[in-house]
């Protein structure tokens, strides 16, 4: 008997990329739990795991408006610890989606990578 895959998709519901990712999962019948950054936030331990797994430079969404609107002194001298603090205080500055599943993790939506994972 095949065991069901446990999948959690982290993101923001109105993000176009998250919408594409959710549609992709639904089309393939992949059950998943959705974690809304804005409503539920993300704890420091998860962010530490993600930054270790992917690199803080990829997890922190520096191209988004949330990050760009931050004061220059906040954006200066970035490192992993400072990036985690920024993301805790500004969940919209977290790259999305992030998907954690049994045996792996995905950052962003790339259909080819997702096909291999699922």
Describe the protein's topology.
Blueprint: E1 7-11, H1 16-27, E2 33-36, H2 37-40, H3 44-54, H4 56-59, H5 65-68, H6 72-75, H7 80-89, E3 98-101, E4 104-107, H8 111-117
Parallel strand pairs: 1-2
Antiparallel strand pairs: 1-3, 3-4
Helix pairs in contact: 3-7
Provide key terms for this protein.
118 residues, alpha+beta, Glutaredoxin, 4 strands, 47% helix
What do you see in this structure?
Helix 3 crosses helix 7. This protein has 118 residues and is an alpha+beta fold. A four-stranded mixed β-sheet has the order 2-1-3-4. It has helices spanning 16-27, 37-40, 44-54, 56-59, 65-68, 72-75, 80-89, 111-117; strands spanning 7-11, 33-36, 98-101, 104-107. The chain is globular, with a radius of gyration of 15 Å. The mean pLDDT is 93. It has a single domain (7-117), classed as Glutaredoxin. It contains eight helices and four strands, in the order E-H-E-H-H-H-H-H-H-E-E-H. The chain starts with 6 loop residues before the first strand and ends with a helix. The longest helix has 12 residues, at 16-27. The chain is 47% helix and 14% strand. Helix 1 (16-27) links the parallel strand 1 and strand 2.
Spatial order of the strands forming the largest sheet: 2-1-3-4
Radius of gyration: 15 Å
How many helix segments? 8
CATH architecture, please? 3-Layer(aba) Sandwich
Number of domains: 1
Question: Any idea of the CATH topology?
Answer: Glutaredoxin
Largest sheet: 4 strands, mixed
Annotation, overall tally of beta strands: 4
Average pLDDT score? 93
Rough shape?
globular
Helix content: 40-55%
Reading the helices and strands in chain order gives EHEHHHHHHEEH
Helices and strands: which structural class?
alpha+beta
| CATH superfamily descriptor | Glutaredoxin
Strand content: 5-15%
N-to-C span: 18 Å
């Amino acid at each position: 008997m095949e065991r069901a895959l446990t999948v959690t998709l982290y993101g923001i519901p109105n993000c176009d990329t998250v919408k594409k990712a959710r549609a992709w999962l639904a089309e393939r019948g992949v059950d998943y739990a959705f974690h809304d950054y804005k409503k539920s936030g993300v704890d420091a331990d998860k962010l530490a795991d993600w930054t270790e797994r992917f690199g803080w430079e990829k997890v922190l969404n520096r191209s988004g408006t949330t990050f760009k609107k931050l004061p220059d002194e906040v954006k200066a001298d970035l490192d992993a610890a400072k990036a985690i603090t920024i993301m805790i205080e500004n969940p919209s500055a977290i790259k999305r989606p992030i998907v954690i599943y049994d045996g792996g993790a995905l950052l962003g939506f790339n259909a080819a990578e997702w096909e291999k994972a699922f």
